[in-house]
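[Automated response] Your request has been received and processed.

Submitted sequence:
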Amino acid sequence: MSTLFVLLAVAVIFIYFFRRDIKEKIVPQKEKYYTIDDQFNSDKRERQKEIDALLSKMKENGVDDLTEKELNRLNELSKK
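Generated structure:
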């Protein structure tokens, strides 16, 4: 019984000290392993989504429907 308790205590201590390493092996963080190209492509997709949203809003009701802030943001994104 005491041997089982000691083994259980050792297992708990082991898991406590190495919990980050164990978690990384089971569920790795995707952002941690981004390459520069992956980050660039992700940013590009986000910019494109924002441009598409602004253009679709403009398509529905015309340019006058966009606020000044949205127009500035669209101009800024189109320059990139």
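Summary generated for your ticket: Residues 19 and 25 are 10 Å apart (CA to CA). The two ends are 68 Å apart (CA to CA).
If you did not submit this request, please reply to this message.
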